[in-house]
Amino acid sequence: MKDDNISQETNNLISSLPADKDFMGYSLYNYKGCWYYPNTLQAVLDVQDNFRPQKNDIILASLPKGGTTWLKSLVFAVVHREKYRENPQIIHPLLSQNPHLAKFPSPMIFSTHMHLNALHEATTKSSSSPCKIVYVCRGLKDTFVSVDAYCRGVTLYGPYWEHMLSYWKGSLEDKENVLFMRYEEIIEEPLIQVKRLAEFLNCPFTEEEEESGNLEINKKGTTRIGIDSNVFFRKGEVGDWKNHLTPQMAKRIDEVVEVKLRGSGLIFP
């Protein structure tokens, strides 16, 4: 991985850290329990030094391939539903721009793959009230890149189970500011999960909206909160791991995850 923009201070830090290789042979370094490429670690350190979110900002987090882009589209549509429903002549930005590149109005919506503890090193330095953090968790076998690296925990932002547990525990300890969502539950019961998300973000749907069917979300056509349904239902299939893992590989992952999550209350079927 390119490391052209690594500061001398960070290079000195990296030289003192435990190192390993990812499944492609690139070097990963363990900093405070998480594995990073040099450029990723530099970015994390920069965020911790300079990022100070405002109380109205929203941070969306996930593991790589975990559904952050999809969640960002969903959050934007929920938070700004009135603006685009009442002004149909305004082209919805999610219909013409990548959610990560679009310039959104306030509240600002940020996305990250950072471990919650690493993220808190930035957010707790902010002078304003805590912002909202929404974490989307996807079935582990649908996000793996290498069974061996996965089971050893040597993956970017990994170990994956520690990453998920940080947000799981955060959501239990600070329910007002950290929401833990499951990718599969959003797919299976979008109405319930969208309402839950809206309530957490302090923009709940009114009785009138519910009674008029404004929460209806179909996988085809247009939703009634002002955006095409394709934005909500991406190609990330639930259970696609069955097309890539042998039963023995799946069993190995399940056994590791069961041990690592034991006693946490976080369970994967």
TrEMBL record:
Its EC number is 2.8.2.-. Keywords: Transferase. InterPro entries: P-loop_NTPase (IPR027417), Sulfotransferase_dom (IPR000863). Residues 56-265 form the Sulfotransferase domain. PANTHER family: SULFOTRANSFERASE SULT. Belongs to the sulfotransferase 1 family. This is Sulfotransferase. The lineage of its organism: Eukaryota, Viridiplantae, Streptophyta, Embryophyta, Tracheophyta.
